[in-house]
Amino acid sequence: MAGKLSKLSIILFFLSACLYLVLLPFIHYPLNTIIKPIPIILLIIIAWQTTADQTTKTFLIIALILSLLGDIVLTLPGELAFKLGILSFLLAHSAYISLFLKDAQFRLNRTLYFLPILLFILGSYWFMSPHLEQMLIPVTIYLCFLAIMVFTAFQVQQHPVLIIGGACSFLFSDFIFALTQFVLGESHYTNILIMFSYYLAQLLLVLGLIQRQTGLKPA
Q1: pLDDT at 15 over 90
Q2: Which of 146, 159, 173, 172 is nearest to 209 (CA)?
Q3: CA 130, 134, 138, 141 torsion: positive or negative?
Q4: Which residue of 21, 81, 188, 202 is surrounded by the most CB atoms within 10 Å?
């Protein structure tokens, strides 16, 4: 259904995301490796069906595929899998940055709005850095790309609300994820919060980028 947002795909996205969130406390590898990526696969289908601009379509699908790989890798055991997951999402952020820069108009007021977010990022890094140990450099590099992604989201000229919301939700998801990995330890509640905000982030980014390029909204 090219040129229109597929209502069926969006419904399936919500159903699959809710299913994973409900099952999350009860499933482990390898079942979570199968179920976790399904909502992102559906977003890839939505992006493929609806995005008119070829460059936006290409980079958006690349960002989602890299996120999909990151989702899968992070379900695997081992430190190498964790590092590869970080790399996958770093590259996904790079694709989103490229998309945002296509329609960026740097304004002072947008930059001022971003400053509290920047202070939050710096404060979080200062708080968590003593706990990062051998992951200090990879996490620092990743955080720089994440901060740039959020900053460029604030500079998007057309239909910025969904995109800014998606970028901030991504930041929140990563913040809680880092807390559980390096400071607090995992729990069912934090894992659900991480995945809820992550799925929300990807949905808002996809809908925001599609709306920016085509003006389409869900039917």
Answers
A1: yes
A2: 159
A3: positive
A4: 202
Domain extents in the chain: 7-214
Structure tokens at 36: 């976790």
Q: How far is the C-alpha of 110 from the C-alpha of 80, rounded, in Å?
A: 38
Nearest-angstrom CA–CA distance, 139 and 100: 23
Would you give the DSSP letter of residue 219?
-
The pLDDT tens digits of the residues spanning 115-154 come to 999 999 999 999 999 999 899 999 999 999 999 999 999 9
With beta carbons less than 8 A apart as the criterion, state whether 145 and 97 touch.
yes
User: At residue 219, does pLDDT exceed 80?
Assistant: no
How far apart, in whole angstroms, are the C-alpha atoms of residue 159 and residue 172? 21
Q: What is the dihedral of CA 50, 55, 56, 58, to 10 degrees?
A: 70
DSSP-based three-state secondary structure for 32? helix
Contact between 100 and 152 under an 8 Å Cβ cutoff? The reply is yes
What are the residue ranges of helices labelled H in 103-187?
A: 108-132, 136-154, 160-179
pTM of the model: 0.92
